[in-house]
């Protein structure tokens, strides 16, 4: 029989050898802390290779990927300190491999994913339970789960806005925080074309200004459909005063959808020390979570939960061809037809670590951020722009305090650009309003708790070194 590159008994041993060798090389790359990416590898255009007509051997294709692997960003490197998406959980990585080989489609339970549908239901219920939402331990219809696993934060936030509009079809005002807003909430309002108008509420110290929120509620009255807040925001990891927001909104009206984007902050619920920060999430109409950001899980995995399971059920649809089954997830996931088994990654992490160990790991991550803040605070070459430290530290390098804001912003942009070219370390960089002034800041936010204090110190020395180089070039 001609070999068309499909797995069978004849090529089983060959494929095993290739796969084991490949996995070994990938593990070596994941734990390589020497760089984040190949240096001088930024390109203005994408050049398309010729269409492959004759093909090549599998190991030639694998060799090409491995020979160019440093062109990828190593989120697991101890020198990658800009985002929390470390993706280095043993259980999560193992589950990602299992998911690919199992080839389950969660659109339908009986004929496509009998066990996978049960696993997905479990993780949704576990998260409802730990968050404080009501839950059942026996599920007869997935529309009553009160949540869904989605592709990412944009999709999860989109579901929340859709449910709000179904519940309050005649309302049109959406209130979101200014300055600290993440694109996922604003994209949801733009793409859905629901005829809503977004009003941005002023923030103070990266939280909603509650007196300004009260004014907006008075101004727009019964037209207010949806209020979205962050727990924690994606820039500074500042956790919103959820209790204060809830009480203001609830005292004004109980017919406003209150939503929390907790894609970064929901993990605080695992920590005995920090869970009080998000205790009031259980009173919000909906909450989004991104385990791929904060639970060391390979991409992608996001979750939307709704307090009232009937609100979630309002999004469901049925189709006799493949989804006419009360336990099939295809009816509860708008915009998603064929559905990957991503929930297995979260299930494996929670089953393997348990909630107590996850809480300890979350606290270790916060301690690392505080260590980094303390290292910066002892160095006069840096100024920090946030003080309520959970996961993030935003900062600027300054050779002296008498330079203008514009000069400082230009300097830090150039530091960021040079860092991207070097490929040795990575901190995120963006513009944010700090006490009424727009600043271009660098941001530490690492989910990788393998990072040591020595490596944090080395990273600061690196930023200071290239800061001096760039500063001398400007002068």
Automatic annotation (TrEMBL):
The keyword Cytoplasm does not apply. Pfam families: Pyridoxal_deC (PF00282). It is an enzyme of class 4 (lyase). The modification N6-(pyridoxal phosphate)lysine is found at residue 293. Its cofactor is pyridoxal 5'-phosphate. Transmembrane segments: none annotated. InterPro entries: PyrdxlP-dep_de-COase (IPR002129), PyrdxlP-dep_Trfase (IPR015424), PyrdxlP-dep_Trfase_major (IPR015421), PyrdxlP-dep_Trfase_small (IPR015422). The keyword Nucleus does not apply. GO terms for biological process: carboxylic acid metabolic process. GO terms for cellular component: cytoplasm. Its EC number is 4.1.1.15. It comes from the Bacteria. GO terms for molecular function: aromatic-L-amino-acid decarboxylase activity; glutamate decarboxylase activity; pyridoxal phosphate binding. Keywords: Decarboxylase, Lyase, Pyridoxal phosphate. SUPFAM superfamilies: PLP-dependent transferases. Belongs to the group II decarboxylase family. PANTHER family: CYSTEINE SULFINIC ACID DECARBOXYLASE, GLUTAMATE DECARBOXYLASE-RELATED. This is Glutamate decarboxylase. The gene is gadA.
